[in-house]
Amino acid sequence: MRPHSILIVTFLFAASVRLIYIATLHGDASFFAEADTHVYWSEGGQLWRTLSTSTDRMPLYPLFLAACRALFGDTPRAVALLQALLGAGTCAMIARLGLFVSRPAGIAAGLLAACSATLVVYSAQILTDTLSLFMMTAAFLATAHFLQRPSLAMAAATGVAAGLALGTRPGVALLLPAMAVLILARTIRTDFRRAVISVVLFCVAAALPVTPLVVRNYVYFDRFGLTSQSGVHLANWIVPLLRQRQDGTPYETSVNKMNAAFDDAVRRAPDAYRDPFQQSSLYTTLARVELASIAPMTFIKAWIEGAATNLFAPAALGDPRVRSMEKPSFFATPGQSMLERSVHYFKSSSVIFAVVIIAGVAGSILSIALSAIGFVRLCRERAGWAALAAVPVVYFLVLTGPVVSAKYRMPMEPSLIVLAGIGLAAIWSAATSRRNAPPSA
Question: Which residues contact 128 (CB under 8 A, 6 or more apart)?
């Protein structure tokens, strides 16, 4: 099968899987299972207010939602259908990344991406993840093409894709300098002038999608930041989870304490009512005071447990039907370690929910095992490529830290699926060779 045929078949198969999944969902509420979905939907319906005053999220996804609502009306199912096509495009790009290694790896990666429960389930939610992943995978693919055959046009294309990814998800920001370093390192030995021009093109193209946002934040708030979300995230997520890991303080108790301290701080700085970036700074200051009392070993344990949970958390947790089953809130579940909280969580859940989650975890374990096999195989053949494939996985595991959810695995999926495709192709090749081997005397 030719490479283009592989990509077309992957796209069509992936689109079919996602459309069938959407057809099984009933009612508009099915597309708002996650907490942030209503916020994004509201921002898409009040676009001018979002673009002019909202500072806690990037603007590209609200723009996407506003366009969908203008074309199709207030129909979340239409958004899910468009996101299904974007997800299918992501699967085709993942297959293309696999083809850089081998044709069997590309076919396997495309098949695994099309059937990935994480990509399928969350593509039906009104969340930024599907659009962000599409742009980020496009940036990875453009970077791979540049490394294979450098050109000024490909450097600019990589920058545009990376900038659009940043416009949907600020968490990818630190990956952009890494891409610039790769572009420079690839060309600097052969043509220094061309290397500099390539990097400049990448940087300019990457900056264009977010420049209006940065200018607005500077004009209105005298800040060059992208969003005002970092302080709230640190104070209301990282600190409470670390505190719970260290001494067992319930998550909600720490959140209430941080918010009460914030309210007191705002009363002493009334200008913060009108400045979300100043509010973020206040949250950050309060969080740093709490973090100073957290033992270093607690950080290490929390990050290791968070990484393991995000890698193995079943995507079924994002399905609206599973979410409606009888179960407690995981973050409100008592317990000091992640294992202790998980035990309490399962004991308080219904039997059918526990069965679904156990099956999902088993699937995640199999997927990660294939990725590990693929990583070892790629290390033996092309160590540099293996290192590049590992970078997004390690980066996002460190970035999310102790905050856990199956959806946080999404930005790692291109790398994990390509590696799993390599592993699956290697297993298939070994099995075929063994079956075709002549019998020993």
Answer: 40, 57, 58, 60, 61, 168, 169
